[in-house]
Amino acid sequence: MNKTKLQQLGQLLNASVTAKVLAGSEWVAAGGKKHPEAGDALQTENSCFMITRVDGSDLHGMEIGGTLTALETKLLGWALQQGGMKSLSAASDLERQAKRLGDWIQQSVAAGEWRAEVPDRMELRNRLFDGMVPFLLLCEQVGDKEPSYAELEKTIRTFIADDTLLIPLREHEWLVLSSDSVLSEADADGDELLGPEETKELLGTLAEGLQQLITGEWGGECHVAVGEPIVPSENVVRIVSTLRETMFLGRKFHVGMQIHLPWLVHLERLLSGIPETVRSRFVEEMMGRPDLFTDSETVATLDAFFSMDCNVSETAKKLFIHRNTLLYRLDKIKHEAGLDVRSFNDAVLVRILLLLYKVTKRK
């Protein structure tokens, strides 16, 4: 609501009206309901705060000096609810319902309510069924290339099954929930029962395809995190939190990667929780050669070696080099660092050192 409208409203109510943003925690602490919506009001001793828009855990609204009557509160709340629907640019019912669900997810994540179940009042609850695959998208397009809800939903439906839900969360961030039938459709072998590893491999392939589709359509930078099938009515808050953490860790420890998988960042999650001073001291004490990881060839060799589960032959193929060339590089690392990555214990240490170095070198 702009300044002119606030002034006009103030004249009608014969009271001061100012714009204000209130944190969700402040709203609840002051006695407001846990999941507020546009039009909700909170009367205090000297003023009344009324919500005009919910943006995640932030409540945008107006503070009205004095006390409103019950009728004034009800009428003004009704008007704001109608205006809130119009502010979505005459969006479809699906978009409005998806935004409402996204706001609830945001509020629950901010409150740390990981086990919160989607309430019955959410219209989309009846479209959440067991075994949906969650994708978290973070898409930052350039200039005016930002897709609308309808455009993005239409594009995603060309790649993933029709029974897919697109839910807006924070700015540039979207949650996609798709039927697990997308896995059987993507399975080239047509296996009726997919094992855990086959499922994870297919999920990674789907995430990569989705990322390429979006960047090909709108450009910019797009990151995709994907999780295993869930029961969204019970686990949607938890999975959003998990996929956000996965994406954060992936962008922190693996700069340049756009696909982020929860089952591949267990070590990164552990290292991220260690105090920075401890991490830095560990790197300094363990590094035989401080400049070892400044060599791009050494880093590329180690990244490939660890991604191939320390298999020499497969790593050589991945790097398109002769097996003996790879062995020479590994021997060089052993000589300079004093650690042999073909030994399990040394491989663990080098893996940790490499991850920590990638973070500390950007400080």
TrEMBL record:
<dbReference type="Pfam" id="PF13556">
    <property type="entry name" value="HTH_30"/>
</dbReference>
<protein>
    <submittedName>
        <fullName>PucR family transcriptional regulator</fullName>
    </submittedName>
</protein>
<feature type="domain" description="PucR C-terminal helix-turn-helix">
    <location>
        <begin position="299"/>
        <end position="355"/>
    </location>
</feature>
<dbReference type="InterPro" id="IPR051448">
    <property type="entry name" value="CdaR-like_regulators"/>
</dbReference>
<dbReference type="InterPro" id="IPR025736">
    <property type="entry name" value="PucR_C-HTH_dom"/>
</dbReference>
<dbReference type="InterPro" id="IPR042070">
    <property type="entry name" value="PucR_C-HTH_sf"/>
</dbReference>
<dbReference type="InterPro" id="IPR009057">
    <property type="entry name" value="Homeodomain-like_sf"/>
</dbReference>
